[in-house]
Design brief:
Blueprint lengths: L8 E5 L3 H12 L3 E6 L13 E2 L2 E2 H7 L3 E4 L5 H11 L4 E5 L11 H7 L4 E6 L14 H7 L20 H22 L8 E5 H16 L21 E2 L4 E5 L5 H10 L3 H4 L2 H10 L7 H12 L4 H10 L3 E4 L3 H5 L2 H6 L2 E5 L5 E5 L14 E2 L7 H6 L1
Helix pairs in contact: 1-6, 6-7
């Protein structure tokens, strides 16, 4: 069976993570993604080490399955080439969030040449406002949006998210918005829908919205997913051989009492106030989690993580070990999900890579995808 989007053609004009990732989402679903690069190549090719041949591992991962065409869109010839490509595709992705490689496009001309073209513009701060021309980056987006507000310790330097969540979430929004615009066009609802704007800053604002709803409430704001900025960082619970994390979602009085006795925490049951707080808000996400952490860790001190997880799970808690990279990659769950595939770099070198989270029964997920060398497909693309 053909891949789900095998009938869709996408042109990707990007030089940073968000645009590359958006193109990857389309390619993973089977779209024909034409990657437009300057003569020196997408800067992402240099984002190493590690390097796989001449290209960075980041580039190889993000661009497997795409076709590369060289076009210097700062010249009249390159603009003409871009116009020819845009006239033959369904979606054009442009990512101008970080540097000035991509000049302003002549959108009106592109849309006249291809009335069915969807143009998705990824920027740092959006098309309007005093910040619209400012360059951005992953770290800038996290900082300027206050995304880092819930990390680290109060009154200490801010801490960034370890993953590139601004770029990743922006790419998800860009893919979703582009597909929505394309589907609307196909159904005859084209008015005002052919331009899609997504920004790193706006994506982070959206992620912060629920927390800000709590911040604007004058009452105490503690809950299942809204912890105070003053709460200390959570590193899980130490056991005899590692660390675990657990959540007690719902538990009746009988099970709670049995669990406390099995953990040798009878003293908690003897103190009604402490017992009530520890049961309702004294584990993991709760308001008093940090205050009562020493009780749990004392109970787990002579238990392995596996033993503690088994006991907690018996009483309905969600309990899991805190894994490092090696443990996750080699876990039985990852193996059963077949979550780790491989991509092939130019020259034939193979590299393991995490598969896309959206999987389609009709897609050839097990076929290794090849990352293009610079300009590998220029002749065939421009000829067609």
């Amino acid at each position: 069976m053909s891949a789900i989007l095998s009938h869709l053609k996408v042109a990707e004009l990007s030089h940073a993570y968000a645009g590359n990732l958006t193109g990857m989402f389309f390619a993973n679903a089977g779209a024909d993604v034409l990657k437009i690069e300057p003569p020196e190549g997408d800067p992402v090719r240099t984002w190493g080490p590690p390097m796989i041949g001449d290209d960075s591992a980041v580039f190889v991962t993000l661009n497997a399955g795409k076709r590369s065409v060289v076009a210097d869109v700062t010249t009249s010839e390159g603009k003409a080439q871009l116009g020819r490509i845009a006239a033959s595709v369904d979606v054009l992705i442009e990512d101008s969030a970080e540097t000035a490689y991509i000049p302003p496009l002549d959108y009106a001309t592109l849309l006249r040449a291809n009335p069915n073209l969807i143009i998705c513009s990824i920027s740092g701060y959006g098309p309007e406002g005093p910040w619209r021309h400012l360059p951005s980056s992953e770290l800038v987006a996290q900082m300027s949006s206050e995304m880092i507000g819930g990390l680290g310790k109060h009154d200490e330097a801010p801490v960034r998210f370890g993953s590139d969540i601004a770029s990743y979430f922006t790419a998800i929004a860009a893919t979703q918005g582009s597909l929505a615009a394309w589907l609307g066009l196909k159904r005859g609802r084209s008015e005002g829908s052919r331009r899609v704007h997504v920004s790193l800053f706006g994506s982070m604002l959206f992620l912060r919205s629920t927390m800000w709803a709590a911040l604007s409430n004058p009452d105490d704001w503690w809950g299942l997913h809204l912890d105070s900025y003053l709460k200390p960082p959570d590193h899980g619970y130490q056991t005899k051989d590692g660390r675990l994390y657990f959540v007690i979602a719902r538990i009746n009085d009988d099970d709670w009492g049995a669990m406390m006795r099995e953990l040798d925490l009878d003293e908690i049951l003897a103190d009604p106030e402490t017992n009530d707080k520890m049961k309702t808000e004294g584990a993991a996400f709760g308001r008093y989690a940090h205050d009562y952490k020493h009780y749990w860790e004392r109970a787990f001190a002579e238990m392995t993580s596996a033993e503690a997880i088994e006991l907690l799970s018996k009483y309905g808690a969600y309990a899991y070990p805190i894994n490092d990279e090696e443990a996750v990659v080699n876990s039985e769950q990852v193996v059963h999900l077949e979550a780790i595939g491989k991509v092939i770099a130019p020259g034939g070198a193979e590299m393991p890579a995490v598969k896309a989270p959206a999987r389609f029964q009709s897609s050839a997920d097990d076929v290794a995808r090849v990352s293009p060398s610079l300009g590998q497909h220029t002749a065939e693309i421009l000829k067609s």
